[in-house]
């Protein structure tokens, strides 16, 4: 029997960790002479107080859902995929090729092609570290980190030398055709009589991200493959004894993980920028690690954690814009959330387990 009930594991531990991060962040804000209560109010108002703020919060959250799910799938197979950033970059290349070189008559057809392109390019970029892990014993953390830098170099070369329009100095592709532009939340909600900001970048890919959460849940907890992935992650020797091939699980898990990371590009490349530019990922691949940690590698947890980090990104931007709090301090606040919900998880978990153990002994 587990020492701590499941609800405490899933809800209480992250909530207390988040509260500790908030308290420490408030002390840091106080130390520089700002009012932490006013700062929180501004963050909430800027990120959640209008449809414009919600649009940006959901836009960032969409990115984090894809990269968080990518990390979560690899986690279940006992692998730490830190290559989501590079896989998302190459996913963007797949989206750009699908949108630029085919005359799609409607955005829905272009979305299907872009989704396939993004997933294939992301999966292909993850396949090489996966093969090195499965066949050569190379550590997945090292190889995926290295491949982030290689992906950045490949993307830079493609944008400067291959995809850049003639006469342009900007290392970016030309804009996609209007027929492949994804509808924004404003356009999606308007037929239902719901007003939403036209300027907000949240778009149809949010629904794709939610669908991805549902499909990953079904894969991990409702299929034989998902059972094999979890069994391998729980005990490699036990999985071998049961006839589960480690090579097969490593390759499939990383292909799915890379494909999910690549799917992020349909949001920031096809949905928001409507062209491929350098640095389009903006660190979302690394934030996905924190999202997966905080969400306990469960799709519902990833969804909620992605919303939280979307709030922190948009709210932090509002703080940097309207107060004297420097942008660097916003990064510190985000880092504190990551620190407490990830690295210092046991600092909260162990006292809670002790309390629940005492409670059970007292009742028996």
Task: Give the C-alpha Rg.
Answer: 21 Å
The largest sheet is: none
Number of continuous helical runs: 16
How would you state the average pLDDT, rounded? 92
Coarse shape: globular
Can you describe what's shown?
With 364 residues, the chain is an all-alpha fold. The protein has a domain at 64-180 and 208-318. Helices cover 75% and strands 0% of the residues. The protein is built from 16 helices and no strands. The chain has helices at residues 6-31, 36-48, 51-76, 84-100, 107-136, 140-162, 185-189, 205-222, 224-234, 236-241, 246-263, 265-273, 284-294, 299-322, 327-343, 345-363.
How would the blueprint of this fold be written?
Blueprint: H1 6-31, H2 36-48, H3 51-76, H4 84-100, H5 107-136, H6 140-162, H7 185-189, H8 205-222, H9 224-234, H10 236-241, H11 246-263, H12 265-273, H13 284-294, H14 299-322, H15 327-343, H16 345-363
Helix pairs in contact: 1-15, 1-16, 2-3, 2-14, 3-8, 3-11, 3-13, 3-14, 4-5, 4-6, 4-11, 4-12, 4-13, 5-6, 5-11, 8-9, 8-14, 9-11, 13-14, 14-15
Task: Describe, in short, the structure shown.
By secondary structure, the protein is an all-alpha fold. The protein has helices at 6-31, 36-48, 51-76, 84-100, 107-136, 140-162, 185-189, 205-222, 224-234, 236-241, 246-263, 265-273, 284-294, 299-322, 327-343, 345-363.
Offer a few descriptive terms.
single chain; 364 residues; mainly alpha; 75% helix
């Amino acid at each position: 029997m587990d020492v701590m009930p499941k609800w405490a594991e899933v809800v209480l531990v992250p909530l207390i960790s988040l509260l500790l991060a908030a308290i420490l962040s408030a002390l840091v804000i106080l130390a520089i002479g700002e009012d932490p209560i006013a700062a929180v109010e501004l963050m909430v108002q800027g990120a959640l107080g209008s449809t414009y703020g919600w649009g940006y919060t959901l836009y960032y959250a969409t990115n984090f859902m894809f990269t968080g799910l990518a990390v979560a799938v690899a986690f279940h197979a006992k692998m730490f995929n830190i290559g989501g950033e590079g896989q998302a970059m190459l996913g963007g290349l797949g989206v750009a090729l699908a949108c630029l070189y085919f005359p799609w008559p409607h955005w829905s057809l272009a979305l299907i092609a872009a989704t396939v392109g993004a997933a294939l390019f992301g999966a292909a970029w993850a396949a090489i570290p996966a093969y090195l892990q499965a066949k050569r014993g190379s550590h997945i953390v090292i190889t995926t980190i290295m491949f982030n830098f290689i992906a950045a170099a490949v993307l830079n070369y493609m944008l400067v030398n291959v995809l850049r329009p003639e006469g342009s100095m900007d290392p970016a592709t030309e804009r996609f055709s209007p027929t492949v532009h994804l509808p924004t939340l404003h356009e999606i909600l308007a037929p239902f009589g719901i007003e939403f900001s036209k300027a907000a970048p949240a778009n149809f890919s949010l629904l794709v991200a939610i669908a991805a959460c549902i499909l990953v849940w079904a894969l991990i907890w409702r299929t034989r493959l998902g059972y094999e992935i979890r069994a391998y992650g729980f005990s490699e020797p036990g999985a071998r004894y049961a006839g589960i091939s480690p090579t097969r699980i490593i390759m499939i898990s990383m292909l799915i993980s890379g494909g999910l990371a690549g799917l992020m590009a349909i949001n920031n490349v096809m949905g928001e920028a409507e062209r491929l530019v350098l640095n389009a990922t903006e660190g979302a691949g690394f934030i996905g690690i924190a999202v997966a940690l905080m969400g306990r590698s469960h799709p519902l947890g990833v969804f909620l954690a992605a919303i939280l980090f979307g709030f922190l990104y948009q709210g932090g931007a509002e703080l940097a814009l309207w107060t004297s709090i420097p942008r660097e301090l916003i990064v510190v606040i985000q880092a504190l959330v990551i620190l407490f919900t990830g690295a210092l998880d046991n600092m909260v978990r162990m006292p809670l387990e002790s309390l629940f153990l005492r409670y059970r002994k007292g009742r028996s």
